[in-house]
Amino acid sequence: MLVSNLDEILSFNEEFVSSQSYEPYRTDKFPSKKMVIVTCMDTRLTELLPRAMNFKNGDAKVIKTAGALICEPYGSVMRSLLVAVTLLKAEEVFVVGHLDCGMIGLQAAPVLAELEKKGISKERMENLRHSGVDIENWLHGCQDVESGVMESVNLIRNHPLFPSHLMVHGLTINPVTGKLHLVFDGREAKNL
């Protein structure tokens, strides 16, 4: 039987709201630092990344995806970026991958094997393949963190709907120390 955190979350939330513990987090929907960050969903970055980059609640839009990888030019991550730089007034993009990422060298086979253990039949996987879904490519990671960051940076910069005057930077972060490493400086790209 699966154990859920739902009851604990709802109970905590009741107290959180009734005690007005939300007050320190109040802000509006526009990022005050006018930036949007695409980063990994890794749990080590939840609090470390904002501290390491010096932003707090309300400063930035944060889009999380496995490996900070944008795999589809017309998928939900790119759509979120376009909304952020248009309707939500973000003016600068930071793609931040991290060392020791599970997407480095990821191949589809282990993911599919785990899905099969969780009850997804091989027949269902084959049906997807027959309907044109390239599962192996879709579940593929990156060679190394820097190349993954650059794949996402280049997809954004070269997207036909992305405003070319906006800066797109690429960085990596050490998930232990928070040390940032610059992979691509979007300011220099504007001078090319």
Task: Note down, in words, how this protein is organized.
Zn(2+) binds at residues 40, 42, 98, 101. With 192 residues, the chain is α/β, with parallel strands linked by helices. Helices cover 38% and strands 15% of the residues. The chain has two domains: 26-101 and 144-192, Carbonic anhydrase (Beta-carbonic Anhydrase, Chain A), CATH 3.40.1050; 107-140, no CATH class. Helix 2 (45-53) links the parallel strand 1 and strand 2. The longest helix is centred in the first third of the chain and has 13 residues, at 6-18. The chain is globular, with a radius of gyration of 19 Å.
Would you report the number of β strands? 5
Q: Which CATH class of the largest domain?
A: Alpha Beta
CATH topology label of the largest domain: Beta-carbonic Anhydrase, Chain A
* Whole-number count of domains: 2
- Rg from C-alpha positions? 19 Å
> CATH superfamily name of the largest domain?
Carbonic anhydrase
Q: Helical residue percent? A: 25-40%
- Poorly predicted regions are none
What would CATH call the architecture of the largest domain? 3-Layer(aba) Sandwich
SSE order, one letter for each helix or strand: HEHEHEHHHHEEH
Query: What's the mean pLDDT score?
Result: 94
Distance between the termini: 58 Å
By DSSP (H or I, 4+ residues per run), the number of helices equals 8
Keywords summarizing the entry:
Beta-carbonic Anhydrase, Chain A, alpha/beta, 8 helices, 2 domains, 192 residues, single chain
